[in-house]
Specification:
The complex is a heterodimer of chains A (93) and B (180).
Chain A lengths: L2 E4 L3 E4 L4 E5 L13 H9 L7 E7 L7 E7 L4 E7 L10
Antiparallel strand pairs in A: 1-2, 3-4, 4-5, 5-6
Chain B lengths: L13 E3 L4 E7 L1 H10 L11 E3 L3 E7 L2 E6 L4 H11 L5 E5 L4 E7 L3 H5 L17 E6 L2 E9 L2 E7 L3 H11 L9
Antiparallel strand pairs in B: 1-7, 2-5, 2-6, 3-4, 4-5, 7-10, 8-9, 9-10
The chains are: A mainly beta (93), B alpha+beta (180).
């Protein structure tokens, strides 16, 4: 079983978590000003990365919090997890 | 339901441990600390920690979420008292007394038995006394609280209680538990 490190609770078994899709996708501030194409791309288009992917997870059968993880999609190894709202570690922005 | 489907006789290591009332409190840390002191605790509980002062038990469920068990006091008396202490703090206080039921499981080998359905490492070195956690028992969500080396308090939603008990009793056929 995969072990996932929840930033709030510590390392827990995969069964307690649920996957939440790609992370760091900002909702347009004023949806009424966005063109249909841009809105469709916000809703549906994802990067489908091969390699290191930033994604959301939720510790649904634990503390209930959402957090983010960097996972390598080729090896399924979770490199690091960090709290929701934080920048991905190692990213200078 | 047919005769053969009735639940097996309750074993000695499994008992009912219902408190008088239960609440789930959600809020920021100052609100949680105010509630803790209103219930007679010196401070709020830490991550995955549970405390019992004889009257109340306070269990950490998440960074902004606590489960309050009142052993004697009913919800009608307790709710206004906590709400008073929380005046001025944004919070949500929900009476979940009738949503879930409590079971006490106690006996030599109970850790191994719970591990038949719970994926967390329940060894005493990892899951110490007075550690608590929301987790899973097979498909059912439970709140697990270790009260002693061989004793756990389990909170489980009412409709899953039968499922949980039957699983335990079935598992105990391979992993006998000796009642303490």
């Amino acid at each position: 079983m995969l072990l996932i490190h929840c930033p709030h609770c510590g390392t827990r078994p995969e069964l307690e978590f649920s996957y939440g899709g790609e992370a760091h996708i900002a909702r347009p501030a004023d949806p009424s000003q966005v063109s249909d194409d841009d809105w469709a791309s916000y809703l549906y288009l994802r990067s489908n990365t091969k390699g290191v992917h930033a994604e959301r997870w939720r510790h649904v059968r634990g503390c209930g919090r959402f957090f983010n993880a960097l996972r390598d999609t080729t090896t399924d190894r979770i490199l690091v997890t960090y709290k929701a709202g934080e920048k991905p570690p190692g990213e200078a922005r | 339901m047919s005769e053969s489907n009735t639940a097996p006789r309750t074993p000695g290591w499994l008992s009912v441990a219902n408190p008088a009332s239960r609440f789930v409190l959600q809020g920021e840390l100052p609100a949680l600390a105010a509630a803790a002191s209103a219930l007679g605790f010196e401070s709020d509980v830490g991550t995955n920690e549970a405390r019992d002062n004889g009257q109340f038990a306070l269990l950490w469920l998440g960074p902004d979420e606590r489960l309050i068990l009142a052993w004697q006091e009913g919800a009608r008396q307790l709710a206004p008292r906590i709400a008073n202490a929380l005046a001025g703090h944004a919070h949500s206080l929900v009476d979940v007394t009738h949503r879930q039921v409590s079971r006490c499981v106690r006996g030599e080998g109970i850790t191994e038995l719970l591990n038949c359905g719970c994926p967390q490492d329940l060894d005493i070195t990892q899951f110490a006394v007075d550690r608590c956690s929301r987790t899973l028992y097979n498909k059912a969500e439970i709140v697990l609280w270790r009260r002693g080396p061989n004793e756990f308090h389990v909170e489980i939603w009412r409709s899953y209680a039968d499922y949980f008990e039957r699983w335990l009793i079935e598992a105990a056929q391979d992993l006998p538990v000796s009642t303490l």
